[in-house]
């Protein structure tokens, strides 16, 4: 790991992304930020660091994708414009049943390429074939919190009981080294797809191994109504009732919730993984993120899988988050720009169990450098406003993860882009042909 000195026109610094340094520099040593500030001050500390000139660029804390199903890159574009159950029964599940662990590995590699090109240093995943995703993430040298999926009839393990045995053995055998870029959690799919008995076993294992539990909760109105009929309570109330919230819950979606549930979410420390574009495309609704923030509930932004979004890009997801909350609150003053960036970056690392204070001294060195050369970055009356409302993933010029460049001047340093794309195109075509048989 080389020590690096980077000069930037702008640096978004501070725990809340609310400090803008103009004509700044960052010094990275041993994977951490050793100094940040005005270039003239940081320059004094230079001694044998690699120098990177990004004087027409802006450094932001790297983005984190808070909810993915990474190998779903292979399913990109196979089904738009269908109702949820048709989408699942006729397209997604039949495709996944034809997916091997090797296919999932290549799909995850394509996911890593896309994450890197979108300036994303880490992702929180829930999928089967977690070991294939681990291999891809390690090769890409980016952060991952992998939560192997538990539900009935996975292509990897078959029945729910077999899946539970497979996943529990898998996570038990992992080295839960907190310094590793790849960590494990556990991923019961949802309360409607995993019975109480298995949820309780998952809780026991999660508490023994200190694993976060990554689950889909309160995604659709229908799901909430069915839970009330089945359990006599909503999915979030049910999780609390079973005691699962005594462990860390990472709850994807939380679109349809009540003030009673907000209290549970706040008191029992549930983190919301908000996926606004997926919720729009599947017509699930709009999660009341501004209400969650008012209550002091942790929120992280994600994209959901490529089958339902269809990309993994976060800058665009930040724009969507900001606009939807203003619309929902009928108030353009909710969610200032620094808060939106914070939810898409530092809060994401926190949910992954990584201590970060953004681009600040002693924080982990995860940085995204955005080029300012496109016309949509001008004028620069408020550079942070440009990040949230007018930038795009195509502005990402470099990505630094834990002090290491994985993307330098738009070149991948860890992955062979075109061989991965070629392989994934072949796999996707093969599976679509198999589905027709
Ligand atoms: Zn999901």
Key phrases:
437 residues, alpha/beta, Urease, subunit C, domain 1, TIM Barrel, 2 domains, 8-stranded mixed β-sheet, 5-stranded parallel β-sheet, 23% strand, binds zinc ion
Largest sheet: 8 strands, mixed
What molecules are bound to this protein?
Answer: zinc ion
Q: Supply the number of helical segments.
A: 16
Assembly state:
single chain
Shape: globular
Let me know the number of strands: 17
CATH homologous superfamily caption of the largest domain: Metal-dependent hydrolases
**CATH architectural category of the largest domain:** Alpha-Beta Barrel
Helix content percent band? 25-40%
Strand order of the largest sheet: 3-2-1-4-14-15-16-17
N-to-C CA distance: 50 Å
Overall mean confidence score, pLDDT: 96
| CATH fold type of the largest domain | TIM Barrel
Query: Which class of the largest domain in CATH terms?
Result: Alpha Beta
Which percent band covers the strand fraction?
A: 15-25%
């Amino acid at each position: 790991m080389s020590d690096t000195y980077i000069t930037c026109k702008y640096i978004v610094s501070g725990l809340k992304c609310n400090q803008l340094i103009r004509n700044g520099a960052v010094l990275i040593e041993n994977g951490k930020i050793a100094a940040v500030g005005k270039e003239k001050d940081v320059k004094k500390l230079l001694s044998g660091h690699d120098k990177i000139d990004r004087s027409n660029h802006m450094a932001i804390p790297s983005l984190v994708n808070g909810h993915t199903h990474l190998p779903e890159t292979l399913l990109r574009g196979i089904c738009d414009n269908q109702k949820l159950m048709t989408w699942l029964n006729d397209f997604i599940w039949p495709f996944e049943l034809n997916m091997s662990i090797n296919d999932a590995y290549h799909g995850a590699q394509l996911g890593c390429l896309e994450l890197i090109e979108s300036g994303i240093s880490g992702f929180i995943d829930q999928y089967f074939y977690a070991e294939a995703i681990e291999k891809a993430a390690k090769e890409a040298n980016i952060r991952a919190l992998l939560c192997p999926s538990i539900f009935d009839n996975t292509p990897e393990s078959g029945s729910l009981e077999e899946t539970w045995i497979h996943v529990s053995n898998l996570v038990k055998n992992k080295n839960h080294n907190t310094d590793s870029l790849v960590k494990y959690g556990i991923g019961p799919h949802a309360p409607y797809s995993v019975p109480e008995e298995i949820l309780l076993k998952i809780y026991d294992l999660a508490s023994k191994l200190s694993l976060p539990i990554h689950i889909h909760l309160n995604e659709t109105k229908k799901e909430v109504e069915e839970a009330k009929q089945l359990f006599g309570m909503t999915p979030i109330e049910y999780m609390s009732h079973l005691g699962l919230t005594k462990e860390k819950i990472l709850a994807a979606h939380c679109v349809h919730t009540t003030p009673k549930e907000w209290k549970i979410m706040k008191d029992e420390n549930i983190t919301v993984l908000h996926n606004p574009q997926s919720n729009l495309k599947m017509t699930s609704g709009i999660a009341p993120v501004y209400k969650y923030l008012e209550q002091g509930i942790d929120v992280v932004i994600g994209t959901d899988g490529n089958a339902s979004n269809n990309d993994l890009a976060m800058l665009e997801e930040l724009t969507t988050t900001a606009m939807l909350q203003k619309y929902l609150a009928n108030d353009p003053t909710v969610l200032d720009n620094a808060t939106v960036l914070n939810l898409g970056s530092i809060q994401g690392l926190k949910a992954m169990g990584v201590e970060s204070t953004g681009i600040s001294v002693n924080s982990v060195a995860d940085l995204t450098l955005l080029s300012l050369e496109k016309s949509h970055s001008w004028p620069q009356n408020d550079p942070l406003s440009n990040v949230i409302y007018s930038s795009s993933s195509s502005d990402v010029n470099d990505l630094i993860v834990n002090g290491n460049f994985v993307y330098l001047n738009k070149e991948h340093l860890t992955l062979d882009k075109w061989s991965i794309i070629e392989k994934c195109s072949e796999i996707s075509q093969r599976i679509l042909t198999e589905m027709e048989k």
